[in-house]
Please model this.
Amino acid sequence: MFEKHIYSNRRNALKKQINKGLALFLGNQESAMNYPANTYHFRQDSTFLYFFGLNDPDMAAVIDFESGEEIIFGNDVDIDDIIWMGPQPAVAHKAALCGVEHTRPFNELFDYMGKNKNRPIHFLPPYRGKSAILLEKLTGVKPDEQKKNASVELIKAVVTLRSLKEDVEIEAIENAMEVGWLMHTTGIKMAREGVYEREIAGAMEGVALAHGCVVSFPVILTKNGQTLHNHYHGNRLAKGDLVLVDAGIESPECYCTDHTRTYPVGGAFSSRQKDIYSIVLKAQKEAIEMIKPGIRYRNIHLHASLVMAEGLKTLGLMKGDMKEAVAQGAHAMFFPHGLGHMMGMDVHDMEDLDENYVGYDANTTRSSQFGTAYLRLGKELHERYVLTVEPGLYFIPALISKWKSENMFPQFINYEKTGEYLNFGGIRIEDDVLVTASGYKVFGKPIPKEVDDIEKLMR
Amino acid sequence: MFEKHIYSNRRNALKKQINKGLALFLGNQESAMNYPANTYHFRQDSTFLYFFGLNDPDMAAVIDFESGEEIIFGNDVDIDDIIWMGPQPAVAHKAALCGVEHTRPFNELFDYMGKNKNRPIHFLPPYRGKSAILLEKLTGVKPDEQKKNASVELIKAVVTLRSLKEDVEIEAIENAMEVGWLMHTTGIKMAREGVYEREIAGAMEGVALAHGCVVSFPVILTKNGQTLHNHYHGNRLAKGDLVLVDAGIESPECYCTDHTRTYPVGGAFSSRQKDIYSIVLKAQKEAIEMIKPGIRYRNIHLHASLVMAEGLKTLGLMKGDMKEAVAQGAHAMFFPHGLGHMMGMDVHDMEDLDENYVGYDANTTRSSQFGTAYLRLGKELHERYVLTVEPGLYFIPALISKWKSENMFPQFINYEKTGEYLNFGGIRIEDDVLVTASGYKVFGKPIPKEVDDIEKLMR
Model:
């Protein structure tokens, strides 16, 4: 938890943006796995954590934009709780740590909301069933109606604040990188013939846990990198396989890392692998170089797309005018996702608030073109944004077969040649970047990504 | 997944128990961590898995007890799903694997339930918010009303079936034990001075993951074993500490293990630790010896309580007539939980269906006495039950202080002496046991629990 004034300052900044009504912030409850008492590891709601810093379940808070009053609702523990869960500080004590003066038992929230029901109630869209049920009880808005009744004013204000990472947050993200580095380098060294994917994935997640962290999202570790979010870890690695690993950690302070590396089983890229890898790496490095305040991230995405399309052309996989191919979206058969996303307390930062408010604005609306439509961050970059840069090239048999049968972009795609790559898999390379006043800074100790550095580490 | 006839047989057995209406089984949905797309590892609902064997999200099934019809509702994947999640078999193909002939798109479930709304609908109490919201849409029963409107007839029928483990289940549980053994022995060897609790907990969970398993519940690993469900792993181990580790794995088939071991940092018990440890071990071994069909598990719980009370008396911590002390519940200050619980696909098997239907029946109702009230399984044992045996002794400062100030059982408890143990912590020893025709069988390769064996392994 940061110092108290950090949280007070954030709430004061929020109060400056909204004048009417009150904001209701629901902290998360425990999340049941297979029965009520068997729960997944507790994850607090990021916005609740941002404004109040308290990492315990079953709390809520309100900010009254008219009176300025702030109240935290939560229950103190009893002797049964102490026997099972250990002693805990009182809610009033916790509230003081984030500079909130007033606390009340959780049940009084129902009364409180009842008394205020004729005022504007600003709430954020819930993403958990239990929160949706609680929100219905508190506001009368049914779960299916909550997203469209969420306060756009509050969403925009929260996004404005959380997008600009404070010094303490930048430091927290940088501090998280050490474990992310250790996790990935542990994985790279393990990728030998005969090893199961799950052995590496398990060791990597174990590294996160051993350092008091968790994974910031389910580990993607696969020899079938062409499936973008592949969580199946049951394959045994063989010579010639490429392993794609997209993984990050979440620190005890709930700040994330997110890196992808792709490496050859046994430690030597084949020349075909090296060709595609070098194209992705060139695109990633050029994309990073372009990062600075004022540039639209979609333009960087399109530049990376062009670099990769041109690379594919040199290999005979694409043909014709690559600028035109990228404009029409032909490259997306090989690169069907976005270049990156905001990162912070959430690995896709604030995605619960709706990507279109986080990654787009009035000046940059979302593309509807296949591929670029998946880009989560398109708008102009500002100093203190933290984002990922993660181009990739994939040979997805089902997609290639669909496009081929529909005769998509025959002027740009050489389907005869792609037929030779159906067993290739996929390559992605990802780093986390801070937008600085003059340009960018890549977070953390570098995880090897040059061909020679990877091969050296695997020796 | 087991062979098809296993699932057909189970559903046929269920159909023999209920004659009217239809049963609605909701499979689980993905569970959001901090935004909708960032999910915890998927855990299927155990009862859905028991009757249908399908381990994928967003499915439901109905069994019509009058027509005998069985239908699985679920959606096939589209090209976008394939790009992100990989190719998947069709729902009809999956349904055939569990012997169900009829499948329909998920959305048709709403229509189906609408058409059947005047018939008796049997459903089980949901434990996840999303399931509760879905159930309200399907049945009109509000989340707060669902538990009391759940079908007691269906609950009892499911409990009857799932309590008696089939041969394939007993084999699946036995097969899971190897990884549970490896996880615990890995932990025991790591418990040295200067190591953080999280390092051991992380390595242990890493072992589960590396073998394609997950932990069956959040790892309890602590030098403060007096807190029964202690998930804080931030302490550094020092000489003289006892480490209590309660952990288990869940196999890819979703069968559990659950063991507790307690061991001294550095590998040598102090004489005071050995005294208490030996009492718990004696109680655990005698309890296991008593297991056989026909005996009430509460009687075994009370015997273990008596063994421990008598041991505490020899150390001067208790005094007077120990039979009377146990009858009155004085021992529960040191042993405030139950001796064990049913285990199977859930580590507390079927706890979502209500412990009172799982662990109690018309002949054995739950005690209201502090301590014994926490006993999850009290009723008569039957062949094919699988259960845990886990006595423990704890010195819980808050509880001792409360009882002392309330002058609880001064005739049985020597509060002066307990004052010397306030920093002792807690000890628990747990194994998993099958009730056989003639007695019992302890599952798995033994994880060391004798003092000498533990000290030897730690050398």
Chain B has two domains: 4-163, 167-458. Chain B touches chain A through 65 residues (CB under 8 Å).
